[in-house]
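The data layer described in this paper is built around a simple, fixed record for each protein. Such a record has a labelled line for the sequence and another for the backbone structure tokens. For reference, a complete record is included directly beneath this paragraph.
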Amino acid sequence: MELISPNLEYMKAFQRFYDDFAQNDVENAEYYQDGNNNFEQYVQSLIDESKGVNLPEGYVPCHHYWLINRDKEIIGVIRVRHNIDPPFLSHEGGHIGYDIAPSFRGKGYGTAMLKLVLPKACQLGIHRALITADEDNIASRTVIERNGGQFENIVQGIVFPYPIARYWVECCGA
């Protein structure tokens, strides 16, 4: 397994990733709809976002990575936001967000993916990352805890109005 930056060579793999969400996690499929509609434009928007170019209001520069396996399937995506200055990010969004394709969940890929991205966050100057999960998302909370996440508290989400568990994770080695 490895993390790669989004690129056009993975169009078919992304389509399978999106289809997995569309069939098995409809609620979260919408986050990847743009990639399904116009893959080339989508990849360019992710590259632009990493450079802070053409950011929508309230967004910060953010690196996106795809976790691929040896069969060149995209099994997960992870995002590293360069800062959490906007109130939404500092309260409930955090530095790092991730998704595992529904067909690959429960197999340890989330834990591995987060471990792989922490040094990349460190290279971006993030020494301690805020990572959040829905309070009742035990799988995601376990991913964070297995990567050294130190529980801070539960907050009531504002944009997503439900309880959010907040953790801090060392990115540059403990």
Q: What stands out?
A: Helices lie at 11-24, 26-29, 33-37, 39-51, 87-93, 109-123, 138-146. The longest helix spans residues 109-123.
